[in-house]
Each structure stands twice: as C-alpha cells, then as structure tokens.
Amino acid sequence: MEKGYSYSRAGNPTVDAFESKINDLEGGAGAAAYASGMGASVAVLMGFLSAGDHVLISDVVYGGTHRFATKVLARFGVTVEFVDSSRTELVEMGFRPETRLLFTESPANPTLKLTDLRAMSDLAAAQGALHAVDNTFLTPYYQRPLELGADLVIHSTTKYLDGHNATLGGAVVAGKPEQAEQLKFMQKSAGSIMSPFVAWLTLQGTKTLAQRLDQQSANAMEIARFLEAHPRVSKVGYPGLESFPQYDLAKSQASGFGAMLWFEVQGGLAEGKQLMERVKLWSLAENLGQVESLITHPVTMTHGDMTPAERARVGITDGLVRLSVGLEDVADLIEDLDAALG
Ligand SMILES: Cc1ncc(COP(=O)(O)O)c(C=O)c1O
Predict the structure, then answer these.
(1) How close is the Cα of 169 to the center of ligand 1, in Å?
(2) Mind giving me the DSSP string for 132-192?
(3) pTM of the shown model
(4) pLDDT at position 305, please?
(5) Would you call 305 a catalytic residue per the annotation?
C-alpha cells in the first residue's frame, strides 16, 4: 500500500515503467497506458467530454475512432462533428462555444492526410478547447505533438511502439499533471489499464524503435518511388514523395515520413483484391507498424463500418490498397509487388 500498488487496475510497477518511458519520449507531464489504442482514445473522449459538449474530429481517422464517436459517444449527449482538419479555415469555422475538444490524427489512417498540428493547437487554445492528437503513425521518434502545442497525445502501442505483432495496447500522454491525473482516473474507473506483460513486451519494442522506423521508412520511400513509376498503378500516397500534396508540411512538422503508404491499382477494386491475393511476402492484415510487411484493403477491413458516402467524401476509395512497410529486404518486397501487379 505504501508503494501505491494496492490493485492492478489502478497501477502496476511494469505498467508504470512503460508509462514513464512513453511520457519521456513525448515530453509530457504524465501518461496512462491502456488495454488497446481504442481504450486510449476512449479515455480521452469520455474523460474530457460531458453531455452538452461538442467535439470536432478529423474527417479521416482510424475506423474504430469514427465508430466509437458516432455509435457510442453521440448516445451520451456529446455532439460529434467531423471536419477536414487539413483545412485550418474549416476547423476555425467549426468551433462552437461548447466545443471542448479537437481530436486529430496525423498522418491519418489510411489516406495519410496531414493536419497542421501547430496551427490546430493554437486554434484550440484560442477557443478554450483541448487538442488531442493520435500520433500512432509517426511515434514520438518522428513527431512530438506536445512540442507543437497539443494537449494530449494518443497511441495505439499495438503498432510501432511494440512493432513485433505481439501485443495490443494504447497510451495517452498529457501536457499537464492534472490531465494526466484524469487519464489515470479513467484507466482505473473504466478498467482499461494495459496488462503488465504487454507493458513489458512494449518496453522491449521501444528499445529498437529508432532503428526499426528509420529502416522501415527508407524501405517505404523506395517502394513509393517504385509504385509511382509503375504503369499499372494509378495513384500513390506517401508523405515523402514530392507529389504528396502536403509534402512541405510533412517535412516541417516531423523528422521522418514514416512507413505507411497507399496506392490505387488501375482497374479499381477487382484488380486491388487480385493483387492482395497474389502477393507472397506481404501478409494480409488489419495491423500495421510491424517488422513484417502488411497489406490491407481499408474499405473491407479497417474502415468497413463507415458508410460508402462517408468514405467517398474523405477519399477512401474502393481500390485503395494500404501498405505497412516492414524490415525485410526492400528488393524482395519490390520484386513481390512487381510480380503481383503483373
Ligand atoms: C491511428 C490509429 N489509432 C488507433 C487505433 C486503435 O488501436 P488498437 O487497435 O490498439 O485499439 C488504430 C488501429 O489500427 C490506428 O491505426
């Protein structure tokens, strides 16, 4: 009791060690680790919003975040509104007197649309709202939202922080001690704390985070260039390509481009599906950020709960194929894609 470990739902030494690690990496005032990335997002959405409040959420976010906001949060009297957070003027217009939270994800899953984190943090602060950023895709190694003025940083630690397809976990880092306290309160009250074993495995993962991300991102850049030049590929999205519409923003607010990219195969859905069936080195999976290369079809997998109209509005097309580039030999990965593209 004296050490503060009375019950594992409220705190555990191994979980504490991971919370300290992620807090240091993001430069926060305190962190809480959760059973999943969704557990982390829910702790923010339920922990900092009450009935009567309004929340602005990036129009491109992980499908589970969209699902929770529309199907659960909205039932508790919170008004949920999605906004194109890549356009500052639209976000500015979206604020209401009762807006308490701006929730962004950058780069966003799966289109990689970026949000100007400094501009959005300034806007939220001026409106008296908090700015929470889902930083899963770049991790603190490449992007530190708190340094850009954000209040809360969310992670699915399932992804790059673990990196070995071994765990399911999440974390939130707060800029202020009282916010961190609220996050710890949510962890205990909702019963959503990370397990000690997951915390231990995730701590092992963080030891190689920099090396993994640098190599995976270098692989992603080569693959993006290969796809951009391929005659059967109609479109490629990777923040490190000069053709990426927000290339300058990608360079200015992060120190790396990450290892996620997407492309569209000529012909659309049928051709995209065929490609996913033909690849041998890329595993068909919902997960991302692992040492193994993974391939996903967002429309039928990660973003299947959004309506076709919602997806169309934000650019998640039927033929969009998402790649999470791993650590394998890049020549092998390219050869495999080339063979599958036919
Ligand atoms: C950007 C992002 N945030 C949050 C989540 C949810 O994380 P988890 O699957 O660990 O609950 C995901 C999962 O894919 C994600 O990609």
Answers:
(1) 9
(2) EEE-TTTHHHH--GGGGT-SEEEEETTTTTT-SS----EEEEESSHHHHHHHHHHHHHHT-
(3) 0.97
(4) 84
(5) no
